[in-house]
Amino acid sequence: MKEVVLPFNKFPGVDPLLGPEMRSTGEVMGVGRTFAEAFAKAQLGSNSTMKKQGRALLSVREGDKERVVDLAAKLLKQGFELDATHGTAIVLGEAGINPRLVNKVHEGRPHIQDRIKNGEYTYIINTTAGRRAIEDSRVIRRSALQYKVHYDTTLNGGFATTMALNADATEKVTSVQEMHAQIKKS
């Protein structure tokens, strides 16, 4: 599993949504017996701040609302407490999951950015569609980066993260050279 390493922290004020200013990247590789283990190791190698529990924020676009219920259930099973923005909270509530409601930045305080600054979140899943939603979520992405909160912009990333939470990324770390030596022996 390869993971891109982007030095967003070296570009103050840059939106961590991928754009043309991020043409030069580095990569790390995570190798494991399962996807979850490989993903967890790749995240560890990229200095991700994945935590196994805490409070997660879910704010997803309309097209992701069907699948967010399954993701929320997985996070609850893992031991996370959940927050959600209004639209996402309605969908979760209809499925019997009752997150704490949180305001978007333009909806008044206390809002998402306040809660990030206060250290309330260990994980954020924020999917967007449309120019305005992408621009509105810029402050969330910047704050998550600044306060070292693990952040996914797709539900697939969210599902991968939940799988990786149960994998032991430090169980066995093998260098590429060691892997090649093992292959030659086989």
Task: Describe the secondary-structure layout.
Layout: E1 2-5, E2 26-29, H1 35-45, E3 55-59, H2 65-78, E4 81-84, H3 86-94, E5 100-101, H4 112-117, E6 123-126, H5 131-136, H6 138-146, E7 150-152, H7 155-164, H8 176-185
Parallel strand pairs: 3-4, 3-6, 4-5, 6-7
Antiparallel strand pairs: 1-2
Quick overview of this protein structure:
By secondary structure, this protein is an alpha/beta fold.
Describe this structure in words.
By secondary structure, the chain is an alpha/beta fold. The chain has one domain (2-185): Rossmann fold, CATH 3.40.50.1380. The chain has helices spanning 35-45, 65-78, 86-94, 112-117, 131-136, 138-146, 155-164, 176-185; strands at residues 2-5, 26-29, 55-59, 81-84, 100-101, 123-126, 150-152. The strands form 2 sheets. Strands 5-4-3-6-7 form a 5-stranded parallel β-sheet, with helices on both faces. It has a two-stranded antiparallel sheet with strand order 1-2. Strand 3 (55-59), helix 2 and strand 4 form a beta-alpha-beta unit. Helix 1 crosses helix 7 (155-164) and helix 2 (65-78) packs parallel to helix 7 (155-164). InterPro entries: MGS-like_dom, MGS-like_dom_sf, MGS_CPS_CarB. GO terms for molecular function: ATP binding; carbamoyl-phosphate synthase (glutamine-hydrolyzing) activity. It comes from Salmonella enterica I. This is carbamoyl-phosphate synthase (glutamine-hydrolyzing).
